[in-house]
Amino acid sequence: xxxxxxxxxxxxxxxxxxxxxxxxxxxxxxxxxxxxxxxxxxxxxxxxxxxxxxxxxxxxxxxxxxx
Length: 67
What we know:
Protein name: Flp family type IVb pilin
Transmembrane segments: 20-38
Organism: Sphingomonas arvum
InterPro entries: Flp_Fap (IPR007047)
Radius of gyration: 27 Å
Keywords: Membrane, Transmembrane, Transmembrane helix
Distance between the termini: 88 Å
Number of strands: 0
């Protein structure tokens, strides 16, 4: 019975649970950030591809500039 009570009072597993919780929170943050950045990167690549496909006029300084 004393062995069972000592196992219930043992708190050495608490740190592992805390590390797992921190890892889950950080992983979720990374996943959310990657989804948000993925959209921005996709838009930038689309603009670059459009600029390559339709180059600006010689007088324009940037792609998509109006005369």
